[in-house]
Amino acid sequence: TKQKLWGGRFTGKTDPLMHAFNQSLKYDQRMHAADICGSIAYAKSLTLVGILNKDEENKIIAGLKEVGKEWEDGKFEIKEDDEDIHTANERRLSELIGPLGGKLHTGRSRNDQVATDMRLWLLNEVRDVEDGLKGLIRVMVERADKEKDYLMPGYTHLQRGQPIRWSHLLLSHAFSFRSDLERLQQLIPRISVLPLGSGALAGNPFVVDRDFLAKELGFQSVSENSLWGVGDRDFIVEFLMWGSLAMTHLSRLAEDLIIYSTAEFGFVTLSDAYSTGSSMMPQKKNPDSLELLRGKSGRIFGNMAGFLMTLKGLPSTYNKDLQEDKEPLFDAVDNISASFKIAEGVIATLEVHGEKMRQALTMDVLATDLADYLVRKGIPFRETHHISGRAVALAESRKCQLNELTLEDFKRLNEKFSNDIHDIFDFEASVERRQSIGGPSRKMVDRQISVLRAALEN
Ligand code: ARG
Q1: Which residues pair with 307 in a beta bridge?
Q2: Structural domain boundaries, residue 34
């Protein structure tokens, strides 16, 4: 049988279960392109320091491209002894170009190689994730722009609070996603640090030009400490933390829509495309898309917590525990990307029932406006709050709406009430009074829309 890549000092055979336990190829093969890119750049750097001549470099690069093409075409044949993507690619390279393939790993270790591949792979994925997030924000903004006329109760404690625009609610979620977008963009410089040239741990004795490598591979900077270069996985933790928070935002959006889609609320209807039925109850249309968005937030948080547990207490530099970075990261990237796409589809196809929202606006949500009315007549808010509360109680005891109280009723509560009081009972006017930045008035909703559109340009 063929020797393992590292087999020189071994006389005994690997236990078969251990072999499978150790093998990461089934999941790290998705980094095949990053691994090939890293190797091509490294071959070039070896030529620059005289380890390879130009002819050897060309042969190695041609071989690497061939290996890469085999992966692309689904023709790469995995062999039993291929441990991970790095050993698989090197094994195949040597099959294709002979012993010359064995020169490529000069001064390099899988430790700096894997750290480089992971960063390169993630940088590429982050671009897609960013596009997905922008797509979601975009549909939210477009909807908000079209549905500014819809008024609804804004809730605190899930109790009706004050009237707002539906667009204002939608945009509140979009602003969480805008922060996620900023945070994602801020991660990039810390992912984009090149470890290649750190060797196994103690740096590169052939003095490859690491700035050259960084430039070739598109990294923004070079790791300044080789031990850190091979041992750091903070960029993965940070991505998982980022994902946990972004998914938490999705989860809260999903929860709002789940509640609003109940028959009891009836504010929105989820498209059939994003709902499923019940195997037993024929009438059911369940918001499974939204529930999965809510549910997956727990999973991503779990990936983050789990991987932090893996890192905690590890000694310096590379330890095989670090191979456990891949599955949580890959899983997070896949699920977060899918979640953004699903959320975008849900929002794009949602039916919104403006009239149902309007019906949920009961006059009591104007009690704050009633208190503010008296503030404008010079009474301290603490008193007007109390007076308005008594008006609410009076209407409640009469089983009528707040606006059905007569001017005499109001005057009995405070003599400053006059016949303009009934102007207060206008939801649109209430919303339009809120003209400060951040308010639900039309102008301020428009402002939010332009702020978000500008954010999408970055
Ligand atoms: N498959 C390994 C990983 O994912 C690559 C690095 C292996 N290095 C080593 N010294 N065993 O971490």
Answers
A1: none
A2: 7-106
Would 313 be classed as within a structural domain? yes
Minimal-distance CA residue to ligand 1 atom 1? 84
Q: The pTM is what?
A: 0.95
Residue 396, domain CATH: 1.10.40.30
* Residues 250, 352 share a domain: yes
Out of 344, 359, 374, a domain closes at 359
In whole angstroms, what is the distance from residue 53 CA to residue 353 CA? 71
450 in any annotated domain? yes
Helix count and strand count (H, E) for the chain? 18, 6
- 320, 321, 322: which to mutate for ligand 1, most atoms within 8 A of CB? 320
Q: State the pLDDT at residue 8.
A: 87
Q: What is residue 7's predicted lDDT score, i.e. its pLDDT?
A: 84
- In this model, does residue 1 exceed pLDDT 80? no
ipTM exceeds 0.90? yes
Is residue 171 within 8 A of residue 148, CB to CB? The reply is no
Tokens describing residue 136:
């979601």
What are phi and psi for residue 440, nearest 5 degrees? -90, 5
Q: How many A from CA of 322 to the centre of ligand 1?
A: 8
